[in-house]
Amino acid sequence: MRPARRFYFRLALALGMPVGELLNRISSQELTEWMAYYALEPFGEERADLRAGIVASTVANTARDPKKRARPYRPQEFMPTFDRQSKRQTWQQQLRIVEMLNAAFGGKDLRHGDFAHPGGQTGR
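Below the sequence we write its predicted structure tokens.
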């Protein structure tokens, strides 16, 4: 999702209206002002996650052993990340995952060896 579109959803949620209604009722200039305001003072779940991260890092740092971990914990280390772009898997990586799941669930690899075709025929 484009960052601007994502912001529309965030603002619509904060204002209690559907995105379509928001875009019909608000001018482009006001929307730009809302974006600037959000850049200065974020609101919504992202801000709540930051608050929780601050509390969690403070608690973790009070129990941190500086000999084992010299660097203090940061709030971001306790915040969920939803925007990560995962690397696309190659077909070989996907095949390996399927092979592991197949083996874990007791399946047979029909690509190798004798196997029965539907109708009782045996093939190779």
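The mean pLDDT is 87.
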